[in-house]
Amino acid sequence: MTDRHALIQPDRGQKAVPLHLVDKTTFPDWLKGLNGGQRAAIAAQKFEGGGFETAIVPDGDDWFAVGGVADAGALSGWCLAKLAEVLPGGTYRLAKGDAGKAMHGWLTAQYRFDRYRKDPKPNDPRILLTQDVKAIEPALAEAAAVMMVRDLVNTPAEDMGPAQLEAEARALAKAHHATVHVVSGDALERDYPMIHAVGRAASRHHAPRLIELEWGDARHPRVAIVGKGVCFDSGGLDLKPSSGMALMKKDMGGAAHALALTGLVMQAGLKVRLHLLVPAVENAVSGNAMRPGDILRTRQGMSVEVTNTDAEGRLVLGDALVRASEEEPELVIDFATLTGAARVALGPDLPAMFARSDATAEGLLRAGIERDDPCWRLPLHDGYREYLKSDVADILNSHANGFAGASVAGLFLDRFVGEGLDWAHFDTFAWRPVGKPGRPKGGEALGLRAAWGLLQARFG
């Protein structure tokens, strides 16, 4: 796609097409200020001021555009998204006020994933001018992070395996002078047995590993970000049906979120000691695949009975969360495409969020609303811990009764997070099944900007 830095520019009086924003309430009075020909042009385009409606209006030898929004007095992140999708390439400015957080939708609406197209469709840039110069770089950074998630999730598993996730981490480290440590092979089997068990059936090309990145001043508060990196999930020997496997390239969506959030933290120079952990595996099927009934060792020392090989994400996260906890961070945030139960409960748009601390949960909810990246808190209900009891091991990985699947998965992870640590868990979908303005069908960042807002508020 077009270099994002070209899409938002300081307003220095350049020639630009005006953009008018109206809502159902303000539209009638706004319309009165137009001449007859302009009103006829708007009527011909069936523009009535509704959300995401657009029209192009002649104005002598020039023209202007109008967009319908929910509330013209309080712009959301998506108010300019439809305009950015449908307007011709050129330079634009708002006729009244400034874009504010609506810059995000202007940027993300111009995202394209065309890596595999022989002849990518040209994308003439739509440039937005703003007088709020200080807001440009933060808006560009957040949009770039969202687009990074989209790119990683949209890339098929053959080209986005554990080695490629490692390469993404190394590229981030090189750009921001961080260090990367990767554990694989015999060392992985010895020190992170659950990660190894899940990934051992994959080919050598997609061999499992734990990727760690560290950055920042050791004197600053330590923050751990953990992302589930299951680059493809066949379900293992508890094989998924083909319909369930179709989107499993996105099962590394948690890792994509974690990598993108890490990039935001480092680019902003947040005063934290950052620790990124990505357990990267492919849950494949072969003669040495993990079996139902196997009992796994863990880095923590507990034993886990595998009752479902398709509940593998919580296994790899468990070992990674133990490693994160060993450094006693002030905050741990993990992202995972973990359960179908979360999608049944909340649908594709809302990531389920779990937190030990009410203050942390409230901070995430608030930041999500402020950034039009809402999440929804679900409970870590102590009464459901009994669902994880095993007859032969310390804990089992998947309960049989079907109740509260997202919460029980969260309680499984909770067993691997250090006692007393502030921990938040996002069960995100990382995918948009139906496109919306600024949010095309495909890989999507859901919960990323909420987490970023919390980190900024707490450590900025």
From TrEMBL:
InterPro entries: Leucine_aapep/pepB (IPR011356), Macro_dom-like (IPR043472), Peptidase_M17_C (IPR000819), Peptidase_M17_N_1 (IPR048816). It comes from the Bacteria. The keyword Nucleotide-binding does not apply. Pfam families: Peptidase_M17 (PF00883), Peptidase_M17_N_1 (PF21337). Residues 308-315 form the Cytosol aminopeptidase domain. Keywords: Aminopeptidase, Hydrolase, Manganese, Protease. One of its GO terms (molecular function) is aminopeptidase activity. Belongs to the peptidase M17 family. This is Leucyl aminopeptidase family protein. It comes from Novosphingobium cyanobacteriorum.
